[in-house]
């Protein structure tokens, strides 16, 4: 099965799968041997996730059978990734989808138009047009994957869980699903219950490091964690594309998606941390990520008001950057013990 | 603090304009007067029937003007605070609250000013997803801080017919949102008048930019500084037409007389995106090296006249035409065109720290301009935060760059 590279949790994985292609997340954890080149092409002061994905592309660290790349226009950095990829790997078919900034009915219509175009593009890449019946089957498959990983998250060590989460987006999903059905993961340790939010934290060793420091992650809001697989429960009906658009936009939002009339990131974090029984909150935010960095003051204030201590960790997608903050993590956990 | 500044600026410039002789340059002062008047309206205490909206950079200010709303993009405040030397305490306030120094200082300054109670509470806010993600975030944060309604315009990445339809539909919904806030429907006659004034101003802008291409460049050091972006705030009003006409006439006179805006122009430069907003010796350094900034990237008309019968589609096309939207290849194409039109020898990219939209494409832009034989000097400065400004290093690099360009045939 040929692979389609993607980078964002808003990517419609079921649609890619329905075209007979395997969604393959270009995780930024491919290895330290890849040279840093993206900073010179884009700017050093840009999302490390995007830079490392571009570095993977420039180094050819990609699946052998790559049918194309699907990028979501979620933020400036992702758009710059598309710009750079087109210039420096022009041989790769690439589509950049426009991702609405909000999630009202008009946005669902706009995204449906984008998915329709993606569907036709994927059909060209694979030679297999996407039909609604096949899409419904893929939706059922990914719904079960999302359900199983969510179930596992409640009773597993986060490091072990992350290995599975990464596999769901880098291996054929049918095979991963079969294995997941019988999987028993290591139980979480008895550390201090904490809520973890942010963007990209896909290295299992990074989650293990938090656990080694005495943290027990009772819930998360990470785009490589609980937001990686969109919940697709329900009946997509005869027109699955509008249904899929709605599900993508109605999912718990990344900080880049605005909620003009909604609670907003800060309140949502407080509510979820409380609901999970967390004693504190860790923010793991990538350097230069404006959507999250810009909201941190409000998040900090809201958590202070709720009596929930916050530890902010800025990362660059390397374990090294998190390792340097081990003492801060240990001190934070100790304070809450 | 801010209102008295604009009031003093307004009265001072108005008095100065009265005393200017017939042949003395007045365009920049005329422009500054209108900006001061806007500032007074924005920062005055609320008055019955007057509405204020803080917006994203690409908001349709002429449409809002037609609805009786005084509106402005939030970054304007960051630039103003920097230019008046008042920005550092605002930046410190934002940073003290946890705002990262890696974020754009335009946005940090506005956030700090809000925390210091210096930003007037708007009636509502309108965010625009372009030109940058950081700008959307700061408008949303202001809306939450002030607990005021927020409308979000998502500027599509696609610039084709589908993008125009999507954006025009959003502008219609924005009108409905504003009507709900003000309780007053959009008057079609006012809209038509506003669009007509926008088109008049556009024609004059096209003329004045054509004149600015002359050799030697007729525009003085700060004549067109911050011009293209800020004149957008006045579109749809008589003020925009008057300012553009004054500039057009003044540049025309200088071109006819062969007067150089920057005496001793040897090397002609294209400036990318924003200028450095705080007082700095940068322009003097450039001029001492014989270099004149003859064109700014944002000083260009990329849009067709607004069709009076289909104003929303016309406004949508205008927004989508701004090369800061969409793929960077459009921006590079504009830069290449400007480089050719103005026969520049080189380009300066400030690479404003924290700007993912502008600096994020640094290498791609450099490559694109190199394709048309234009070397780029990447300054790597912060355009708003003066604390890290290092003039010594810059002077050496600017002199070396100007010398390189001179040797390549500039001047």
Kindly list the characteristics that best describe this protein.
heterodimer; A: 337 residues; alpha/beta; Rossmann fold; 2 domains; four-stranded parallel beta sheet; 15 helices; B: 411 residues; globular
Description:
The complex is a heterodimer of chains A (337) and B (411). By secondary structure, chain A is α/β, with parallel strands linked by helices. Chain A has two domains: 130 residues, 3-Layer(aba) Sandwich (Rossmann fold), CATH 3.40.50.11890; 147 residues, Rossmann fold, CATH 3.40.50.11900. In chain A, strands 2-1-3-4 form a four-stranded parallel beta sheet, with helices on both faces. In chain A, strands 6-5-7-8 form a four-stranded parallel beta sheet, sandwiched between helices. The radius of gyration of chain A is 19 Å and the shape is globular. Chain B is an alpha/beta fold. Chain B folds into two domains: 137 residues, 3-Layer(aba) Sandwich (Rossmann fold), CATH 3.40.50.11890; 219 residues, 3-Layer(aba) Sandwich (Rossmann fold). In chain B, strands 2-1-3-4 form a four-stranded parallel beta sheet, with helices on both faces. Chain B has a four-stranded parallel beta sheet with strand order 6-5-7-8. In chain B, strand 3, helix 7 and strand 4 form a beta-alpha-beta unit. In chain B, helix 2 runs antiparallel to helix 11 and helix 8 crosses helix 13. The longest helix of chain B has 25 residues. Chain B starts with a helix and ends with a helix. The mean pLDDT of chain B is 95. Chains A and B meet through helix 4, helix 5, helix 12 and helix 13 of A and helix 7, strand 4, helix 8 and helix 15 of B.
């Amino acid at each position: 099965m040929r692979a389609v590279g993607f980078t964002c949790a808003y990517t419609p994985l079921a649609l890619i799968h329905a075209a007979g292609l395997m969604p393959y997340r270009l995780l930024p954890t491919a290895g330290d041997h890849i040279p840093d080149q993206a900073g010179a092409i884009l700017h050093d002061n840009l999302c490390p996730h995007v830079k490392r994905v571009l570095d993977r592309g420039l180094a050819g660290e990609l699946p052998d059978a790559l049918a194309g790349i699907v990028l979501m226009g979620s933020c400036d950095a992702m758009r710059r990734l598309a710009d750079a990829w087109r210039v420096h790997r022009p041989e790769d078919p690439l589509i950049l989808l426009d991702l609405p900034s909000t999630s009202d009915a008009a946005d669902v219509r706009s995204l449906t138009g984008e998915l329709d175009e993606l569907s036709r593009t994927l059909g060209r890449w694979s030679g297999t047009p996407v039909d609604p019946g096949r899409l419904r089957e893929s939706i059922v498959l990914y719904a079960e994957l999302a359900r199983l990983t969510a179930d596992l998250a409640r009773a597993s060590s986060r490091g072990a869980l992350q290995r599975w989460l990464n596999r769901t987006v880098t291996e054929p999903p049918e095979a991963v699903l079969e294995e997941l059905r019988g999987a028993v993961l290591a139980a979480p340790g008895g550390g201090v219950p904490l809520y973890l939010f942010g963007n990209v934290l896909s290295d299992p060793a990074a989650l293990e490091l938090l656990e080694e420091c005495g943290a027990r992650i009772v819930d998360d809001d990470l785009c490589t964690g609980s937001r990686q697989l969109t919940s697709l429960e329900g009946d997509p009906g005869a027109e699955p594309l509008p249904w899929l658009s709605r599900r993508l936009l109605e999912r718990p939002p990344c900080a880049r998606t605005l909620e003009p009339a909604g609670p907003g990131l800060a309140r949502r974090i407080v509510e979820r941390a409380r609901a999970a029984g967390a004693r504190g909150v860790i923010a793991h935010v990538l350097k230069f990520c404006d959507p999250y960095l810009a909201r941190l003051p409000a998040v900090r204030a809201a958590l202070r008001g709720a009596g929930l201590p916050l530890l902010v960790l800025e990362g660059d997608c390397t374990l090294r950057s998190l390792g340097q903050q081990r003492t801060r993590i240990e001190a934070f956990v100790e304070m809450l013990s | 603090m801010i209102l008295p500044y604009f009031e003093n600026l307004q009265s001072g410039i108005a008095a100065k304009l009265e005393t200017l002789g017939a042949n003395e340059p007045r365009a920049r002062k005329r422009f500054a007067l209108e900006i001061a008047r806007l500032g007074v309206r924005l920062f005055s205490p609320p008055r019955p029937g007057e509405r204020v909206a803080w917006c994203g950079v690409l908001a349709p200010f002429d449409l809002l003007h037609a609805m009786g709303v005084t509106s402005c993009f939030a970054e304007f405040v960051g630039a103003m605070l920097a230019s008046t030397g008042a920005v550092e305490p605002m930046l410190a306030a934002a940073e003290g609250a946890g705002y990262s120094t890696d974020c754009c200082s335009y946005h940090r300054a506005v956030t700090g000013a809000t925390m210091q109670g210096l930003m007037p509470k708007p009636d509502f806010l309108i965010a625009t997803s372009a030109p940058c993600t950081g700008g959307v975030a700061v408008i949303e944060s202001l809306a939450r801080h002030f607990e005021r309604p927020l409308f979000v315009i998502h500027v599509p990445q696609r610039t084709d017919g589908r993008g125009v339809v999507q954006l025009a539909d959003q502008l219609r919904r924005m009108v409905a949102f504003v009507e709900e806030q003000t309780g007053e429907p959009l008057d079609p006659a006012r809209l038509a008048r506003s669009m007509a004034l926008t088109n008049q101003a556009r024609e004059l802008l096209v003329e004045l930019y054509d004149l600015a291409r002359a050799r030697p460049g007729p525009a003085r050091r700060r004549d067109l500084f911050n011009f293209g972006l800020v004149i957008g705030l006045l579109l749809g009003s008589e003020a925009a037409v008057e300012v553009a006409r004054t500039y057009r006439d003044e540049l025309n006179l200088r071109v006819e007389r062969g007067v150089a805006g920057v005496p001793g122009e040897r090397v002609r430069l294209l400036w990318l995106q924003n200028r450095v907003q705080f007082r700095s010796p940068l322009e003097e350094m450039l001029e001492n090296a014989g270099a004149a900034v003859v064109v700014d990237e944002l000083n260009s008309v990329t849009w067709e006249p607004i069709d009076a019968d289909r104003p929303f589609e016309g406004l949508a096309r205008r927004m989508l035409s701004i090369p800061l939207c969409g793929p960077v290849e459009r921006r590079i194409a504009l830069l290449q065109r400007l480089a050719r039109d103005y026969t520049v020898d080189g380009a300066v990219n400030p690479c404003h720290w924290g700007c993912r939209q502008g600096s994020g494409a640094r290498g791609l832009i450099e490559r694109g301009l190199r394709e048309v034989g234009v070397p780029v000097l990447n300054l790597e400065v912060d355009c708003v935060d003066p604390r890290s400004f290092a003039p010594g290093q810059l002077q050496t690099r600017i002199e070396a760059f100007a010398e390189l360009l001179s040797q390549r045939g500039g001047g």
